[in-house]
C-alpha cells in the first residue's frame, strides 16, 4: 500500500507532505540514540495505517471537504448562469453592460455565417443551373460570382468565429491554471490548514512516536569468544609404564 485509502485522490499529496514533516520531527526528537526504525520504515507503517490515522481527524477532514464541495458547486452554478446570460444576450443582440453598437456586432457575429452561407448556396445553385441551359442566359455568370462572394464571406465569418472561440478557451484555461489551492476562498483555506494541523499533531506524531517506542532497539551481536592458546610447559596427559613388580621369593 502506498497511499491512504480513506482520503480523496486530490488530498493524498497533502497527506504525504504532512507525513514527511512528521517523520522528520520524530526522528529529530529521538533521544535514545539510534532510532529503531528509519524514515522509510516509518513511512511504510503510516501509509499502511492510513485509515486509522485519518479517522483521528475525520471531523476536520469532513468539514474541509464539505466547504470545498459547496464552493465548487457555487462556482459551477455561477459559470453556468454567465454562459446562459451570454447566449441570451447574443441571441437578442444585447451585450451585457454595453450599448446598442456592441449588441449589433453580437448579432452580426452570430447571423453572418448563417445568412451568407444560405445566400451562397442559393446563388451558386441557380447560377450553375442556368449555366446548364444552352444558350446560357447572361445572368448566370453574375449569379455564380455573387454566390462565390457569399461563400468567401461565410468562410471568413467561420474562421473569425473559430479564432474567437480559441481565444476564449485559452483565457478560460489560463484562469483554470491559476485556480490553485493557494487561490481558494479564505474559509476553505482555513479548513484545509486546520485539517493538516490536526493531522500532524493529533494523528501522525502520536502514531509515529508509538511505533518507535514499541519497537525494540536492536543490539549489535557480541563477537564470538576465542580460546587463547596455553603458553608454557604442561605435563603430558599420558603416564609412564609402572616398573615390573619384584617377586619377594626371588633371591638377588
TrEMBL record:
Name under which the protein is recorded: Transmembrane protein
Compositionally biased spans, kind Pro residues:
217-226
| Membrane-spanning residues | 86-108, 114-134, 146-170
Q: Where is this region: Disordered?
A: 212-252
Basic and acidic residues composition bias: which ranges? 243-252
Provide this UniProt record's keywords sorted from A to Z.
Answer: Membrane, Transmembrane, Transmembrane helix
Amino acid at each position: 500500500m502506498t497511499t491512504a485509502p480513506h482520503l480523496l485522490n486530490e488530498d493524498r499529496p497533502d497527506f504525504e507532505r504532512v507525513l514527511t514533516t512528521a517523520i522528520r520531527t520524530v526522528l529529530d526528537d529521538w533521544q535514545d540514540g539510534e532510532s529503531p526504525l528509519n524514515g522509510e520504515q516509518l513511512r511504510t507503517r503510516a501509509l499502511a495505517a492510513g485509515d486509522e490515522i485519518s479517522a483521528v481527524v475525520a471531523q476536520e477532514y469532513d468539514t474541509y471537504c464539505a466547504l470545498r464541495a459547496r464552493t465548487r458547486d457555487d462556482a459551477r452554478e455561477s459559470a453556468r448562469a454567465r454562459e446562459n446570460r451570454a447566449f441570451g444576450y447574443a441571441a437578442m443582440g444585447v451585450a451585457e453592460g454595453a450599448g446598442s453598437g456592441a449588441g449589433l456586432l453580437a448579432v452580426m457575429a452570430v447571423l453572418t455565417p448563417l445568412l451568407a452561407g444560405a445566400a451562397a448556396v442559393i446563388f451558386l445553385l441557380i447560377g450553375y443551373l442556368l449555366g446548364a441551359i444552352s444558350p446560357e442566359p447572361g445572368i448566370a455568370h453574375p449569379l455564380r460570382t455573387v454566390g462565390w462572394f457569399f461563400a468567401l464571406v461565410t468562410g471568413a465569418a467561420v474562421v473569425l468565429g473559430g479564432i474567437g472561440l480559441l481565444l476564449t478557451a485559452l483565457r478560460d484555461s489560463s484562469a483554470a491554471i491559476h485556480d490553485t489551492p493557494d487561490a481558494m476562498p479564505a474559509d476553505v483555506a482555513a479548513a484545509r490548514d486546520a485539517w493538516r494541523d490536526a493531522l500532524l499533531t493529533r494523528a501522525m506524531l502520536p502514531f509515529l512516536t508509538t511505533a518507535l517506542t514499541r519497537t525494540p532497539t536492536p543490539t549489535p551481536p557480541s563477537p564470538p569468544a576465542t580460546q587463547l592458546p596455553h603458553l608454557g610447559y604442561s605435563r603430558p596427559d599420558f603416564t609412564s609404564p609402572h616398573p615390573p613388580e619384584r617377586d619377594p621369593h626371588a633371591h638377588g
